[in-house]
Design a protein that fits this description.
CATH topology: 2,3-Dihydroxybiphenyl 1,2-Dioxygenase, domain 1
Low-confidence stretches: none
Shape: globular
Strand order of the largest sheet: 2-3-4-1-5-8-7-6
Distance between the termini: 17 Å
CATH architecture: Roll
Strand content: 35-45%
Order of helices and strands: EHEEEEHEEEEHEEE
Radius of gyration: 16 Å
Number of helices: 3
Length: 204
C-alpha cells in the first residue's frame, strides 16, 4: 500500500472539508506537469498517504484528458489507490502474460512546495481496471516518500471495496498478488477506515 487518491473538482474546498472531518489540514503538494492536476497530502502512516487530487487551472495545458474524469463535475470521492513495487517492469510482464492489462510503465514528477523535485516510475494510472479497485503500481526510487513530509494525525487502519461483481475483481487482484477485501455492492467503491483525533471515520 502506497497511497489513496481522493478526487475532487475543487482542491481548497475539499481540503477545508477534510480538515473538519479528519482534524488535520492537508499540505500543498505540487503540480503535475503536462497532466493538468495538482494535489495536497495527508500522511496516513510513515510510508502511506492520502492524495487529494484536483484540476490545476493555473498549470500548463494537459497533454491528455484529466485523470479520473476530473474535468467533469461531481462530488469528491475515493477514486483510486496505489501499491508499491520495486520491479515494475517485471510486474508488467507477468501481468500481461496472465491477461491483465496494466498501464505501461512511465515516469512522473512534480516539485514540492519547498522546491524539491520528486521523480517516480509507475504503471500509467490512466489505465483504470475494475473501476479503480485494482491499484496502479509505483516506485519512488531515490525520491523521499511523500508521507515523510506530509501532516500526520490520521492513520489508515483498513481498506476494503465494494463492487457489483466482486469475484471478477478479486480474480484480477489475486493475479497481481494484491490483497483487498471486496464484497458485493450496488456500485464500485473504495472504502478507507481511518483513525483520527475525532474518532473512527470511513472515507469513500
Amino acid at each position: 500500500m502506497d497511497h489513496l487518491v481522493y478526487a475532487t473538482a475543487e482542491l481548497e474546498r475539499t481540503v477545508a472539508d477534510l480538515e473538519k472531518r479528519l482534524g488535520v489540514r492537508a499540505a500543498p503538494g505540487g503540480r503535475h506537469p503536462g497532466e493538468g492536476t495538482r494535489n495536497a497530502l495527508i500522511a496516513l502512516g510513515s510510508d502511506c498517504y492520502l492524495e487529494i487530487l484536483a484540476p490545476d487551472s493555473g498549470g500548463s495545458e494537459p497533454k491528455r484528458p484529466l485523470w479520473l474524469g476530473l474535468e467533469k463535475p461531481g462530488p469528491p470521492r475515493l477514486a483510486a489507490w496505489a501499491s508499491r513495487s520495486r520491479d515494475l517492469d517485471g510486474l508488467f510482464r507477468r501481468a500481461s502474460a496472465a491477461g491483465v492489462r496494466l498501464g505501461s510503465v512511465v515516469s512522473g514528477s512534480r516539485k514540492r512546495s519547498d522546491g524539491a523535485e520528486l521523480v517516480w516510475r509507475f504503471t500509467d494510472p490512466h489505465v483504470v481496471l475494475a473501476d479503480g479497485l485494482v491499484p496502479f503500481f509505483i516506485d519512488w526510487g531515490r525520491s523521499p516518500h511523500p508521507a515523510s513530509s506530509a501532516p500526520d494525525g490520521v492513520s489508515l487502519v483498513a481498506l476494503r471495496a465494494e463492487h457489483p461483481n466482486p469475484a471478477e475483481v478479486v480474480a484480477v487482484l489475486q493475479t497481481l498478488g494484491v490483497q483487498l477485501p471486496v464484497t458485493k455492492g450496488a456500485r464500485p467503491s473504495l472504502i478507507a477506515g481511518l483513525e483520527t483525533s475525532k474518532g473512527f471515520l470511513e472515507l469513500r
